[in-house]
């Protein structure tokens, strides 16, 4: 199953402000530690509709609101989603040819759907986390070396 990533739009100032207020108010309700929470939504008809949601979903909503408040675009991607090479490249901030090379060199698992390569979102995030960890280790090694040689 391929999940198409939609084009992202940055929130405007009003959306960021509303998101910040919503995040703060939602955080207060989540501090109760209940497994579910009921929220009320007022519809166009001015009728209040109560919805019971898992606290985990509201926690994710709080995180999304935090990103919007910071002016970031957000997209929810299911962990089992299959990405095209272009979508995967965009998420790693690399070119599509570089992404294909990573796949062909065995750096990341993939499968083919017809002639098209597909990458699991979970595998991509694991690779990204590993790459970031290796980068931090390399920076720490350089800092240690500079410290040892008196270059600081």
From TrEMBL:
<protein>
    <submittedName>
        <fullName>Helix-turn-helix domain-containing protein</fullName>
    </submittedName>
</protein>
<dbReference type="InterPro" id="IPR009061">
    <property type="entry name" value="DNA-bd_dom_put_sf"/>
</dbReference>
<dbReference type="InterPro" id="IPR041657">
    <property type="entry name" value="HTH_17"/>
</dbReference>
<dbReference type="Pfam" id="PF12728">
    <property type="entry name" value="HTH_17"/>
</dbReference>
<feature type="domain" description="Helix-turn-helix">
    <location>
        <begin position="83"/>
        <end position="131"/>
    </location>
</feature>
<dbReference type="InterPro" id="IPR010093">
    <property type="entry name" value="SinI_DNA-bd"/>
</dbReference>
């Amino acid at each position: 199953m391929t999940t198409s990533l939609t084009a992202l739009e940055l929130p405007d100032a009003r959306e960021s402000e509303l998101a910040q207020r919503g995040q703060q108010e939602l955080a207060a309700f989540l501090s109760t530690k209940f497994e579910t929470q009921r929220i009320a939504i007022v519809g166009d008809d001015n009728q209040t509709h109560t919805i019971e949601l898992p606290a985990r979903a509201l926690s994710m909503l709080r995180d999304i609101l935090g990103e919007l408040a910071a002016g970031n675009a957000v997209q929810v991607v299911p962990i089992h989603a299959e990405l095209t090479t272009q979508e995967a490249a965009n998420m790693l901030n690399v070119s599509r040819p570089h992404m294909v090379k990573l796949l062909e060199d065995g750096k990341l698992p993939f499968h083919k759907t017809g002639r098209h390569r597909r990458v699991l979102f979970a595998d991509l995030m694991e690779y990204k986390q590993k790459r970031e960890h290796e980068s931090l280790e390399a920076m720490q090694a350089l800092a240690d070396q500079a410290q040892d040689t008196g270059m600081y």
